[in-house]
Design a protein that fits this description.
The chain is α/β, with parallel strands linked by helices. It has one domain: NAD(P)-binding Rossmann-like Domain (Rossmann fold). The protein is built from 9 helices and 8 strands. The structure holds NADP nicotinamide-adenine-dinucleotide phosphate (NAP). The site of NADP nicotinamide-adenine-dinucleotide phosphate has 26 residues, from α1. NADP nicotinamide-adenine-dinucleotide phosphate binds next to α1.
Length: 222
């Protein structure tokens, strides 16, 4: 069975870990502290979950989710992620992350910064545009009329295929926005960012299907 490694196990990482376990995946959680600080979280997830260091989570994962404050991206282990799909949930919030000049000038994207650091990994931008409580409440079985869709962007087709399999398994359809550069269409401040699914003022969430997300991505181009 596929193992999903988690570098960061907070609101988004922790929510994804629970959805992954419910879908039958094994998970390895990590944070910036010691694995034992994740004992309660791992116990709540059951026998498919364990804790490790970021290097252990990266090594164990067939797919690895990086879900940390963006400012911490230079600490993500590089070598164990070579050749692997890495799902990057991170967003740039200067008030939390500090000013990052190349993002302030829009000369690159947060996912390109991650990819530049993770030489040899196949970074796919995913899960960055949905509020964590909506992520928890909106999964639906395949084919359900109110199933929501999540956009992805990445330069490696096999990594996007792996991301698509995972996202489908945890209850969402996928809209492939294109190469990593297309992640701009669902980064912070775009029409596809958070609002289509409800956001913090609507914790139960509003289903946003493929057509809705495609339209939101299209609107970002205009
Ligand atoms: N919250 C949302 O609804 C949401 C939605 C979409 C995307 N995002 C983005 O996803 C990322 C994570 O957001 P979040 O809300 O889940 O954050 P969070 O609740 O603060 O969780 C962050 C996690 O990362 C860990 N961490 C911090 N520095 C680390 C490091 N250097 N190495 C390994 N783990 C580290 C933290 O654990 P310790 O501090 O204990 O180490 C914690 O487990 C952010 O970039 C955010 O902008 C958030």
């Amino acid at each position: 069975m596929t193992t999903v490694g988690f570098i960061g196990a907070g609101r988004i990482g922790g929510t994804l870990a629970r959805l992954a376990v419910e879908a039958g995946y094994n998970v390895v959680l990590s944070n910036s502290r010691t694995p034992k600080t994740l004992n309660d979280q791992v116990a709540a997830l059951g026998e498919k979950a364990r804790a490790g260091t970021p290097t252990e989570a990266a090594t164990a994962g067939d797919i690895v989710v990086v879900s940390i404050p963006l400012r911490a991206y230079p600490t993500v282990p590089v070598e164990p992620l070579i050749g692997k799909p890495v799902l990057d949930t991170c967003n740039y919030y200067p008030q939390r992350d500090g000013q990052i000049a190349v993002l302030d000038t829009d000369s690159t994207t947060s996912s390109h910064l991650m990819a530049k650091h993770l030489i040899g990994a196949h970074v796919v931008k995913a899960f960055n545009n949905i509020y964590f409580k909506n992520l928890a409440s909106l999964p639906r079985p395949a084919g359900a009329p109110d199933r929501s869709a999540l956009p992805i962007a990445g330069d490696d087709e096999s990594a996007k295929a792996a991301a698509t399999t995972f996202i489908n398994a945890i209850g969402y359809d996928v809209v492939d926005a294109g190469p990593l550069e297309a992640g701009r269409m669902f980064q912070v401040g775009t029409p596809a960012y958070v609002a289509p699914y409800g956001g913090p003022d609507n914790e139960a969430g509003t289903p946003a299907g493929t057509d809705t997300i495609r339209a939101a991505l299209q609107a970002a181009k205009q």
